[in-house]
Amino acid sequence: MRASAAAVRTVNPTPKTQAPGAAEPASENKQPVRQAIARAASLAKEAEERARDRQHAKGKHTARERLDLLFDSDTFEEVGRFAGGDIAGGKAGSAVITGFGQVYGRKVAVYAQDFSVRGGTLGQAEGQKICRLMDLAMEIRVPIVALIDSGGARIQEGVAALTQYGHIFRKTCQASGFVPQISLILGPCAGGAVYCPALTDLIIMTRENSNMFVTGPDVVKAATGEVISMDGLGGGQVHSSTSGVAHYLGADEADAIDYARTVLAYLPANANEDAPTYAYASGHAEREAAKRLVSVVPESDRQPYDVLDVVRNIADYGEFVQVHELFAPSAVVGFACLEGHPVGIVANQPLVNAGSLDVDSSEKVARFVRLCDAFNLPVITLVDTPGYKPGSDQEHAGIIRRGAKVIYAYANAQVPLVTVVLRKAFGGSYIVMGSKSIGADINFAWPTSQIAVLGAQGAVNIIHRRDLQKAKEAGQDVDALRSQLVADYESSTVNANLSLEMGEIDAMIDPDQTRESIVDALRTLASKRRKRLVDKHHGNQPL
């Protein structure tokens, strides 16, 4: 890193014998160097060599190697290099590295825990360094990235170490929604330490060496008798697919760090800035992608398809960065660009449970919409859902409470909201998925889309229950009658015409007009600004 390299360059490899603390004789070619500074530089070099030996043996990078992967070349500037160390006693510094660097030319703050120093544990010195960095990041209004690899609170320091976690928790909450915060779990993260990343915007884990849990396997066994491995309890795969704690599962450390860099490219430095924009020139590729949209969605409303094919035919260059890809797959969320402008995309996934909303996908959608709203990214919603997933398991898991989070997120969002109904939008899920009534700005629908309280089959079974029973008793063809009633209901009620006539849909568009219509809508909404609707401290979001 730049700071330590500079220190090494200024060291005289063979200093002359002199009294302790005395300065070297000045020369025309170099400024004098105190022995203490030479000693510090030597300690820094030795510490990194020890770190490489320990970390590489475990298949892990050192903290400084991780910083090299995170930042643009030669842009890292360290803050407090030797804070918490004891140069005279042979300790180069504390178990955390703090500083600032650039990601795609934009400044970012970082703290990286160093497992090679006292197991990366957090004590008073480490906590103070992290809090100071976070204060600076909020003052200059830049994102904060945390590289976590720690044995937790330093037992030798007792409550003094625990107190530092409280300070970090509070700083993280203060920064929440003001500057983006990303946590990369690149080693152990256990006990109270897990709540540092849990409070940030995104958590990234790796397939190996990455663990998060409140109580470890030994404590679990002692308390419950359950025998489970660290990976089975809180590994990257578990938290990315089952618990939903992690938003991305990296193949290795380099992949995880690259994902963090990519996400930062879509987000502004802070909540008071617009997201960065990128040069973009449309052409033949966009026209071809628009044509492909015509054949992506099947005519039958019961036939599944991959909504990612729709997203990629809308986004610039077909690039879509998914968030929570492995968790709650009946919904898809992530970042893309339209005409060089970053946006958030939310879509139902008909390949999984017909795209219905369940307890997990509801929280997934709500959290992502809140993230986009905090950092000024327009939200594009692509709707194809039959409703909330039915069943006692969903009711008992809190579909009412957790499903309400989607409502809260959309109803409170003040960024541009553009919605496209691709195929079906029934019942409560129509309302919550970016409908005009909940606050969306501009809503479109494809010509074959269906919008109603219920799907035709369900509605006919309820509305014409007696007619169907009479037909059965009279020996008539009940299936033929039901098919006729379904066709009549679809033509008169389920199609989007009623919503169009009521103004709930602004325009009926052909599939190949989707990208163009969204881009035009975003241009119209480009000057939309936030406004305080009522005088209150904050709402009481369903949690």
Helix content estimate: 40-55%
Give the number of DSSP strands. 17
What is the radius of gyration? 28 Å
Largest sheet: 8 strands, mixed
Taking the alpha carbons of the first and last residues, their distance comes to: 43 Å
Give the CA-based shape: elongated
Number of continuous helical runs: 21
Structural class: alpha/beta
Name the beta content range. 15-25%
pLDDT averaged over residues: 89
What is the gist of this entry?
The chain is of the alpha/beta class. It has helices at residues 2-9, 35-56, 63-70, 124-140, 159-175, 195-198, 217-224, 230-234, 236-241, 253-266, 284-296, 307-312, 359-374, 392-396, 399-412, 427-432, 456-463, 465-473, 478-494, 497-502, 514-524; strands spanning 77-79, 96-103, 106-113, 144-148, 181-185, 188-190, 202-206, 211-213, 248-250, 321-323, 331-338, 341-348, 379-385, 417-426, 442-445, 450-452, 507-508.
What are the main properties of this structure?
543 residues; alpha/beta; 8-stranded mixed β-sheet; 7-stranded mixed β-sheet; 21 helices
What does this protein structure show overall?
This is Methylmalonyl-CoA carboxyltransferase. This protein is an alpha/beta fold. Helices cover 41% and strands 16% of the residues. Strands 10, 11, 12, 13, 14, 15, 16 and 17 form an eight-stranded mixed sheet that branches. Helix 16 links the parallel strand 14 and strand 15. Helix 4 runs parallel beside helix 5 and helix 17 packs across helix 19. It starts with a helix and ends in a 19-residue tail after the last helix. The N terminus is likely disordered.
